[in-house]
Amino acid sequence: MSKKIYKADRTKLFIIESVAEVFNKKGYAGTSMADVEVITGLSRGGIYAHFKNKETLALAVFDYNLSKLCSVIQNRIKKTCSAADKLLVYARVYKALAEDSVILGGSPILNTGSEADDTNSLLRERVAEASFKWQQLMILLIEEGKRSGEFKSDVDASQMAFSMLSLIEGGLLLARLTKDQSRMEQILDAYQQMIRANMVR
């Protein structure tokens, strides 16, 4: 890789890392290119040399924030053994998101999805894809639990995964709207009850 390309890659990553938090907090519409210029210290032309437009930058930032979140979840899952404990990781990480102790601003899926549903089809599609992949990963964990005898053999893995993902995403939204972090404790309890209800006793 030439020094010129290497420098371009570093600058591109610098821009993404610099504005990741503000995009996650203020959203696509709420973050202006003037904000990006101030935060990065780069001119608009310098930014557009690496990103075709604001939408391309927003997509790259979403991917970056999602990657950080996935990394946290995967690292915690690696430290668990049972399928039930692996599923609990999701709820515990979402509780941490509500407290801004994982990614400042909360869940990139929830934040970007709630804004992009009507305003930006590319962002909406990227969020929908990420949400679908997470649901599929949860389905795999539930199926793993069924094979190991943790979960009942007649559990509908797809429905259970959808319900759990909806619960934690909705709980995080309520916690944000009401500014009441105790909501996530209630959601965590409900999530645990859902898992226990589907386990072999």
Automatic annotation (TrEMBL):
Give the InterPro entries listed for this entry.
DNA-bd_HTH_TetR-type_CS, Homeodomain-like_sf, HTH_TetR, Tet_transcr_reg_TetR-rel_C_sf, TetR_C
Keyword Transcription applies: yes
Is Transcription among the key words of this record?
A: yes
Q: Which Pfam families match?
A: TetR_C_13, TetR_N
Q: Which UniProt keywords apply?
A: DNA-binding, Transcription, Transcription regulation
Q: What does the record give as the DNA-binding region? A: 32-51
Tell me where in this chain the HTH tetR-type domain is found: 9-69
Protein name per its UniProtKB record: HTH tetR-type domain-containing protein
The organism of origin for this protein: Dyadobacter beijingensis
